[in-house]
Amino acid sequence: MAGKPARKTLGRPSATASGKQARRTGRNTLSSVRGRKSDTSPRVAGSRSASGVSAAAASEHGASTSSRSVSRATGFVDARTLRSEDFVTKTLKETTGPLGVAARPKVVDFNERVKERRHATILMAIKRVTILVVSIAAVVGVVWALFFSPMLMLNADQITVSGANEWVSSSKVESIASAQAGKSLLLVSTHDVETQLAGIPGVSKATATKQYPNGMRVQISAQEPAAMLKTPDGSLTAVDGKGRILNSVKNASTAGIPVIEVDDVAKGLKSRSVVTAIKVLDSLSTAMRARVNKVTAQTQDSITTELDNGNFSIIWGDASQMKLKKAVVDKIINDPNVIGDKHSVDVSAPMRPIIK
Fold it and tell me: Reduced to 3 states, what is the DSSP secondary structure of residue 240?
């Protein structure tokens, strides 16, 4: 618009020009300085690099020196400073321990280890089988030695017999004991021997004792005959208290042995009256039996004996309560005030004896 006044420009022209000039000068100066810096930077970098290498070398040298000094102070050995040597191979080759004791080499290979285990298993099995065989052999040997060897075998010539008399021969006793000869004493039953010996007529007691290693001692109690059975032809047969026929002895003394008259020995031993009479006589003492000179057995409840050549007649009845009956008879016949001039004593009822 024409009417508007022109805008005046405010500013400082001189100052602006001089500022621009100054900025140009500053740029040139900065470029110059940068150029100088770039010229000097390789040398500085090289110097710094050299000094760094020197410092690193010095540091490494110091560390090495320090490490050596520490090793000497503490006794620690750095493996890197050791000589090159295969200690593993050397250790694996060792076959003995520090004390010279044999040691199994260390097996590294798996197949070798498997073979070794298999070999050890076989050895263990062989060892067990060997121990088993040896044990069985030892047991068999002990059994044979104890039960089948001559070491403990009973010898017939080492059997001794004592206690026999003319009515019980020792030969009969020896024959029973000798039946065990040839057996081990551990297998010989003394109870069986004693039972067989007790079955011999006239043997009231028998004892068998083993005498190691090869003998046996037999001791018997042989009794005198309880009675003599006399047949019509005058022959005499000795019997014991159980009615068993004793050993036949020629010209044997029969003094003091009661005599029972029978028609036949075999039939007489089956008769109850004869068997009861034998039991009564067997229960008498040796002294009283010696005084008996006759025995009558009409029935089993009327056993009668004559004493002192018929001076006394004792009616015993049966064989019961013989201990009491003997005591009553002894009291009566040995006391003149009781027996008086009587000659018959009935003790079939011992609590009420009858004197006639």
Answer: coil
